[in-house]
Amino acid sequence: MSWQQLYESKVISVEEAAGKVKSGDRVVLGHAVGEPAAVIDEMVAHKENYKDVEIVHMVAMGKAGYAQPGMEEHFRHNAIFVGGTTRDAVASGRGDFTPCFFSEVPKLFRTSLPVDVALIQVTPPDEHGYCSFGVSNDYTKPAAECAKLVIAEVNDQMPRTMGDCFIHISEIDYVVESSHPVIELKPARIGEVERAIGENCASLIEDGATLQLGIGAIPDAVLLFLRDKKDLGIHSEMISDGVVELVEAGVITNKAKTIHPGKIVVTFLMGTKKLYDFANNNAMLEMYPVDYVNDPTVIMKNSKMVSINSCVQVDLMGQVASESVGLKQISGVGGQLDFVRGSNMCKDGKSIIAMPATAAKGTVSKIVPLLDEGAAVTTSRNDVDYVVTEFGIAHLKGKNLRERARALINIAHPNFREGLIKECENRFHQQF
Ligand code: COA
């Protein structure tokens, strides 16, 4: 049978696809903007057909209907990362949170969380019958490789990305055809605070550096201050639109990269159509599964690796809480520690935790004597390297606890410095 005949034999309707998922199944959803919305939305619309279906996901960019009130008996959300649409479900007990480094999620699916159904979204097959995972390779490809059943939404508007990013039609059990724009994430608003943080971070980036940038206003602001740099490279969990502008400006060339020279290496994309058009059939951009891209022993092979991530709180020892406000889980470790460790292990690497000095409209300091009770430490005091705010840069690696406290107070918001100094004078029995 030709692959074309094979493909035709697998095409079913959305309703039929939803009917393939059984009560009690563990379903892994394609990640972030690669979520196959049609089938999961159909399942939610007919919730009465399901009991105790576990929905495993990370950054949920779709409607997350399965996590809403009233779904408890039918679906239970197991979040490896909590986002805007799933925070309430986890906080109010309708969902669960499973801590795991992003780099280890594929192993989770191969060992402790075996996958019954992988619901994925891919491009139509190429002339050899291979579909690209498009915007989300990450854990989606590994989940499809180990799932008992693979249901693929084949979207003709999904960009065809390159790298180790393909699945052959013979590896897919059922196909649902669709045609819709990929979910877009608009660029964040960059204010004065973010600009100052961006400028401080950019001062730590040398020509020829390889970058990992997270999502949001701070990474976007960093990119604004890189226009005079030369031959930057990208090895990052994800990228958004700002990277495209720097490629077009000739700043990101990837020429100085020591692994994958000439290539942007990422595991997922999240931005606007501008990014997706850039990624489509672009041999400069390679997508690999997250257990490769985020593997610290791979990251460390880049030269001048610089990672930039954000957090909720830093205490005066340099312990970084990035995923919970006290006991309330607001996100997850994601790839933060994968890149902190990979950059620290890189012989000339730097890892940066960048954050505004205050939160909640300036009413609380993010630099605190003690983390809020119940907060999870994401980046430990042994891992932390640079902390950056709008007030400056604190290089903590190699500093003792007293020196760390001093360096952090210097970059705290002036309104909170006096309180932090008093705390240090008690703690270290000397004037600060
Ligand atoms: N005290 C109280 N509340 C705080 C707080 C603090 N110190 N810091 C943040 N918050 C609140 C904010 O007010 C906001 O609440 P709201 O949604 O009700 O307005 C919420 O927590 C989220 O904070 P915000 O600053 O808007 O988040 P962000 O979009 O800039 O993301 C992180 C910051 C830390 C949540 C995010 O970077 C993260 O999840 N990091 C860990 C994962 C990671 O680094 N992955 C690798 C890169 S992709």
TrEMBL record:
The keyword Nuclease is annotated on this UniProt entry: no
Pfam entry (one): AcetylCoA_hydro
Swiss-Prot/TrEMBL keywords: Transferase
Domain of life the protein comes from: Bacteria
GO biological process entries: acetate metabolic process
Keyword Transferase appears in the UniProt entry: yes
InterPro entries: AcetylCoA_hyd_C (IPR026888), AcetylCoA_hyd_C_sf (IPR038460), ActCoA_hydro (IPR046433), ActCoA_hydro_N (IPR003702), NagB/RpiA_transferase-like (IPR037171)
EC number(s) per entry: 2.8.3.-
Any one GO molecular-function label of the UniProt entry: acetate CoA-transferase activity
Domain named Acetyl-CoA hydrolase/transferase N-terminal: residues: 4-182
Domain Acetyl-CoA hydrolase/transferase C-terminal: start-end pairs: 271-423
Group of enzyme by EC: transferase
Membership in a protein family: Belongs to the acetyl-CoA hydrolase/transferase family.
Protein name per its UniProtKB record: Succinyl-CoA:coenzyme A transferase
Organism: Clostridium liquoris
